[in-house]
Amino acid sequence: MRAGRSLRHTWASIVWLGAVLCNFAAGAVERVKDVEPRTPVSAAGAGDPKRINYVRTVGDTTDLVVGSAYRGTFCSKVGEVRWTKQWLEAVGATVNRIMRSEILAAGYKGIEQRESAFASEDRQAPDFELAGLIKEFKIEFCDRFDREGLGGVWVSIQWELFAPKLQRVVFKSITEGSFQTESKVSGTATNFIEKAVTVAARNLLAQPEFVAALSGATQVAAESKSLERLAILSRADGNARASEDIPFLRSAVVTIESGVGSGSGFFVSTEGYLLTNHHVVGDAKYVKIILSTGRTLVGEVIRSDRRRDLAVVKTESVQLRPFRVSAGAPEIGSEVFVIGSPLGRTLSGTVARGILSSRKEFDGMEFLLSDAKILPGNSGSPMIGSDGAVIGIASMGIGSWRGESLGVYVPMPSALDVLKIDYGN
């Protein structure tokens, strides 16, 4: 009898000691900042919901300490967590997935992935694009094994809402999210991160200012339609054949670097106006212009059209002969030349020759096709007719550029119309 009571007393002491040690272990894991979760404003019943495309999540890798890792029943500290490229990629991928899911859950329309470059833009074009910048991150996580853990995660994300019709950011905000538990729960560090990111995403979708920015789509469209026409004087002379005028033509073609890559562009005025592709300049406000002589200028992106993949860049006046722009329709089978910077500035001024293969329409937009193929870096290059005038702007290539392919070009009359340019001598 006495032995039984002694055994029960010993077992009770063990249970009590285990509880004390567990509480001690929980207290050993540092707490992160608590963030109050908010409920997103539902887009249901608000008319036609906006189509939002969550583009990407970015951030810097600073190698700073962002937390601690613990392990075992008693949560012994085993090391520091540093913000590395691997952590950025992992957290960024989580933000991408969760924000896209939360956009749909709030009643907005998402964007489907497209297999073809010529899929319907009307069906897929977003009203707004959203991106995130990870500003701060904190993790204090104890791995208790068997997919159990305790601790917390806190994240701060800066969001930017971009209006393609205005070509500018119309809303910017920073929201925080956190998840924390002082008792062991089922889940890994990844699960804790997902919960914290979900709070940050929902806190953005709950902001009245964010909802108000989305409701400004009508104003965005009106401002886009009211864009004033741009008058460009070319001051271009000469009617020499392109094959005889290559040195002068090459001098009016530039390499454009935007920070996300490089492409080509060409002068259409001595006043410093250049034409190129939207995807060459991206969302940059200013770009680097490298002349054929190696001289570097700064260019300002003054207007751009994402759907037609066109942009106008303005830099300082230049002492060179700009391109003439053809207003006519070139003949199929006629000779054409393409000058650009395939693979970057080291191959700037490269000339390719071919024929105008065909004229096609995709999704209501006309394109010119040529066997003068487009290599990476050729985007924004001028396609020149036999009389030396520009007839199209290089946009993309179809097929493998290492093998047989066709270049796709935007016709100049269409480019001038979309960019609202009045062009003349």
Overview of the molecule:
With 425 residues, this protein is of the alpha+beta class. The protein has 9 helices and 20 strands. It has helices at 2-28, 85-105, 121-124, 189-205, 208-214, 217-225, 246-251, 278-281, 412-418; strands spanning 52-58, 65-71, 76-82, 128-143, 148-163, 168-186, 230-233, 253-257, 262-267, 273-276, 286-290, 296-305, 310-314, 335-340, 350-362, 365-370, 382-384, 390-398, 406-411, 421-424. Strands 1, 2, 3, 4, 5 and 6 form a 6-stranded mixed sheet that branches. It has a 6-stranded antiparallel β-barrel with strand order 8-9-10-13-12-11. Strand 18 (390-398) and strand 19 form a beta hairpin. It starts with a helix and ends with a strand. The relative contact order is 0.10.
Quick rundown:
This protein is of the alpha+beta class and 425 residues long.
SSE topology sketch:
Blueprint: H1 2-28, E1 52-58, E2 65-71, E3 76-82, H2 85-105, H3 121-124, E4 128-143, E5 148-163, E6 168-186, H4 189-205, H5 208-214, H6 217-225, E7 230-233, H7 246-251, E8 253-257, E9 262-267, E10 273-276, H8 278-281, E11 286-290, E12 296-305, E13 310-314, E14 335-340, E15 350-362, E16 365-370, E17 382-384, E18 390-398, E19 406-411, H9 412-418, E20 421-424
Parallel strand pairs: 1-4, 2-4, 7-20
Antiparallel strand pairs: 2-3, 4-5, 5-6, 8-9, 8-11, 9-10, 10-13, 11-12, 12-13, 14-15, 14-17, 15-16, 16-19, 17-18, 18-19
Helix pairs in contact: 2-4
